Amino acid sequence: MLEAILLTIITAATPLVIAAVGELVTERAGVLNLGVEGMMIMGAVCAFAGSYLTGSPLLGVLCGIIGGALFSLLFGFLTLTLVTNQVATGLALTILGLGLSGQIGESFVGIPGVKLQPIVFPVLSDIPFVGPLLFKQDITFYLSIALIIGVNWFLFKSRTGLKMRAIGDNHGSAHALGINVIRTRYLAVMFGGACAGLAGAQLSLVYTPQWVENMSAGRGWIALALVVFASWRPWRVFAGGYIFGAVGILQLHAQAFGIGVPSQFLSMLPYAVTIVVLIIISHNRRTTLINTPASLGKPFVPDR
Amino acid sequence: MTKTIDKEAVPLLQVRGLTKYFGSFAANNGIDLTIAHGEIHALLGENGAGKSTLVKMLFGVLQPSAGEIVWTGKPQTVTSPGHARSLGIGMVFQHFSLFEALTVAENIALSLDPKIPLATIAEEAAALSRAYGLPLDPSSHVADLSVGERQRIEIVRALLQNPKLIILDEPTSVLTPQEADKLFETLFKLKAEGRSVLYISHRLEEVQRICDRATVLRHGKVTGACDPRRETPASLARMMVGSEVAAVHRADANVLGATLVDVRRLNVPARTPFAVTLKDVSLRVRAGEVLAIAGVAGNGQGELFDALSGEYPVADAETIRMRDKPVGRLGINGRRMLGAGFVPEERHGHAAVSDMSLSDNLLLSRSQSDRTAFLAGGFASVIRHDTIRSAAKRICDMMDVRKSGDDPAAASLSGGNLQKFIIGRELDRQPSILIVNQPTWGVDAGAASRIRQALIDLARSGSAVVVISQDLDEIFEVATNIAVISEGRLSQPFPAGELTLEKIGLLMGGIHDSTHGGETAHAH
Description:
The complex is a heterodimer. Chain A is mainly α. In chain A, 72% of the residues lie in helices and 1% in strands. Chain A has one domain (2-108, 130-291): ABC transporter involved in vitamin B12 uptake, BtuC. Chain A is globular. Chain B folds into three domains: 13-241, P-loop containing nucleotide triphosphate hydrolases (Rossmann fold); 247-339 and 431-524, Rossmann fold (3-Layer(aba) Sandwich); 356-429, no CATH class. In chain B, strands 13, 16, 19, 20, 21, 22 and 23 form a seven-stranded mixed beta sheet that branches. Chain B has a six-stranded mixed beta sheet with strand order 6-7-8-3-9-10, with helices on both faces. A four-stranded antiparallel beta sheet of chain B has the order 2-1-4-5, with helices on one face. The radius of gyration of chain B is 24 Å and the shape is globular. At the A-B interface, helix 7, helix 8 and helix 13 of A face loops of B.
């Protein structure tokens, strides 16, 4: 029973963690992309289409990643090259993504999908309890862990990551130092798009292996909120994703169990608990200020 | 002073006919400049004379429209700051190009070879900062450092690349006199090592003290090249400004009247982690008095202004009294109604809405205090555009605001002209109390003397004036009494005539015990 619940929690938390850590990188470079929901749903439909057409769910995952990255490139072109307003463009990207994915996926509705198979680590997966949870998962779970570790290392240990944080803090000074602000931001935006696409692929190939319109169901917005409440730190994003996933699953069980609390209140719990916990984590205002990208959302036009 | 100018025949840097157009406006027009090995060369000029444009081209931030840069005898196109650094040009910017969220070592690492590990950079920076007398902790976050310390990072960062030429843009504008003296020692050390320094400033006394040669710019053109030590401040100023600057006429000891501003033991906790806590600030300003508050940036000036203006009202109404009424809990408009006027530090976005016209900006600040004049129809509050426009015109005429068009957007005015308008907007009401933060920051000399004169005249007519400023020349020009703010504490006021630069410097450094002053004076 406990093992089954934990497995569903992991499945619920994985797309949030992946999408949020991608957006974290985008925002650390100073770009606010509110189109996570749209990129996620585009990733979901591309992944489903890819696996349906090729018969390989792994190629489907790849399609989801590419779909999300290409879709974010549209956002990058509009906000970085044409310097449109990031908030408005991000919102438009979400609306466009929801509509376009519905159009693309129209013929897939009702078709049973192919589930992404778990990668089983021999020996390790035989460890009782821990084995099936950690070593008998599909590739998206392993990628989510690798992404958290990798992004944390990249941002705080590598020189390129330092440059990215510098751009997010003060793009004018970064430009004056000779750092290519626009190019770095393009890469950061596309990384965020690729992650959102991967998160979408997890939805349509693992979480519920089929295509349903609007199947991202607001998870992109949760991921966005996680980034802010986690004060742009990867491990906090990880914690936030799992708290949200856990409370979300537990309240479902509580509802099924029929405890005497109104269901609306239980449905509210994941949001409330996540916010409260992350606010407590980031109560130190000085650390939060140090971690907040100061040039977030501000347009950058190099003077010639 | 040692003679090192003719050490090598080929000058370090030669600039010939350098020109930069922004649209049809020539920010630099045919600039010629030669810098020899091992000299400290001054680049003098007013705000807007084109100094920054020139150095940005030397440092590869901007590309020239015409002309050439010859570096150690070879013509070069400086394509980027990275290229400039590899040639051996280092730069210390006026507005620091530092990243507040990063540590000192991380900031330095950003401009160095990425292969060097961060730990090595931290060690080298610490060693270098000790060698040149610029103490720094590589692991501290920039956000927690003072302006003087931030400047040290910039200098250490430039030095780590072993440059032949170091460009310093207005380095002392943010330093106490003592910190400036330390900087000069560092510069002399650099010069003794055979490096050259391009020293940008508009402070004549400094330039005469440390520079071997000077090039003067005005309106984008070179108007003079000289040995500053053979010139007088007046002759240098003439080259910079073009005409004699009107001297400000001081009030001969005004008769001081009733106390109009009375602040007693004002304590304000810091609102943000980077803000300053005001501790036990007391001050008293009488009718006819100009109280000037000196201090290095970031010691609580902004916080004090916020409390005095009511931008952030304070908890206890009685701690701030204006014209004998407790105003601590009143907002800006409430205090304006009592006859006070306020001019904050930032012109754009604080004192004025950049994209709005002058008349709209006039209405925004005075819609409550001049309600009966500017608004009609009681509750309906219909704007009387004609009245407001003529008031804006009156202010422009009074303060000699130069603008294009009848009622242009605030953003289209130059800094000095907009500041004259903003000050005029308050003076037009004949306020009995005026509180000004940095009245002439970034303003050209002509406009600055106009503004200072207006402040003195207002006090003479019986108002109480508080001027918060970092410019000591300005403070001595306008002040009746001077107090110094340091780390959120305000010193007792001293009559302007009794304070020396030396003593102010000590107070700015946070030494409140006034018995230490004068005796340690050293020769200049």
